[in-house]
Amino acid sequence: MKDKKNRFAFLWNIFLFSALGCFSLFFLVHYTDIPVHHQEKLMTAEVFASAIILFNGIGLSLKYIDNWLIRTYPSFIRDRKLLILFFIVSAFFLLVTNYFLMVTIKWLTGSPHPFIVAAKGMRLLSIVFLVELFITGQMMVSQFYKNIVEMYRRTKDLEESAIKTRYMALQSQLNPHFLFNSLNTLVAEIEYAPQKAVEFTRNLSDIYRYILSCQNKQLVSIGEELDFIRKFIFLHQVRLGDCLELENELPLDVYECSIPPLTLQLLVENVVKHNVISPAKPMVISIYADRIDDTDWLVVSNEIHPKKGVASTGKGLDNLLQRNLLVCQKEIIVENKDNRFIVKVPIVNEYE
Fold first, then answer.
1. Which residues, at least 6 apart from 222, have a Cβ–Cβ distance to it below 8 Å?
2. What angle do CA 300, 305, 311 make, to 5 degrees?
3. Secondary structure in 3-state letters for 330-342
4. Are strands 283-292 and 295-303 parallel, antiparallel or unpaired?
5. What ranges do the domains of the chain cover?
């Protein structure tokens, strides 16, 4: 549906700029100082095609710049000064395009002074320019308000996603099954290793404190996530033994970048849930950074030791995908190859 709308918008822009090119050519030929005996020679399909190509080149270039500014700097569509600046630049390009179209027409007709515009030609050039400016301005204003509506819709989606994240944190991410296992482990440690039980309790407390602090956040730093996931893995290590290990290969400059909260917890929990982890089959979870198509990715990778009778619902990864789409407009990448399960999460650098 979205591709269909984009295709329709592109065809509409082609039609609009083509109509502006034909309109400009017709009036500049018939109502400026071009001799009458040359006017019919200029009303040919080849000349009209040239005008259409010229105006589409300029018009689509302006549209591309407009879209790039909006995509790269969301504040552009909220800043009136930037909007006015772009409107002035667009007006300048339209004026220059009309002028060079007139110069080209006069040059084709053998005018001795193609770059000089008489008073009659200047009046007509101004009228054509103002008409085109009005049409282009209406198009830009329409696009401007369309983007405001889109930003409002995205904000509402983010608010709804934040609510869902709160419930998921309490109901699913750290579910009662995890708490039940943790309390059973704690009871055993109190009996056989009191000192370790104290450390276990502190880590469990820190984990729930972090979960509660994340409920109103859309992004957290990777450094915070790593501190949290070390404590989370420690709880599993107490229960499973030293056969579970975290291998962190992230460079330090990535720690200040951001990802959605509880990303690493969800991915680590998936590893524990769906794989056999034992002294005979130890599990190493690798975390490192990758760069693909000018985008930095946080990668979580593990060998596959599938548990029998444990079916994957895909809900956890789908939730993570939706949150990334809403927050940073990028999907996660999931790969299953060479007996390794790999998930790549886009990294958000808030200083770019």
1. 250, 254, 255, 256, 257, 258, 259, 298, 347
2. 90
3. CCCEEEEECCEEE
4. antiparallel
5. 2-154, 219-346
| 145 burial via Cβ count (<10 Å: 0-12, 13-18, 19+) | exposed
Q: Which helix (H) or strand (E) holds 297?
A: strand 295-303
Least Cα distance to 283 among 241, 320, 316 occurs for 241
Residue 338 in tokens: 């060479």
pLDDT digits (tens, 9 = 90+) for 105-121: 667 666 667 677 666 66
Sequence-separated (6 or more) residues with CB below 8 Å from residue 41: 109
Regions in the chain scoring below 50 on pLDDT: 72-73, 167, 170-173, 351-352
Structure tokens of 67?
A: 């879209």
- CB-based contact 260:224 (threshold 8 Å): no
H-only helix segments in the chain: 2-30, 36-42, 45-72, 80-108, 119-168, 176-192, 194-213, 222-240, 263-274, 315-328
Topology of the domain covering 219-346: Heat Shock Protein 90 (3.30.565)
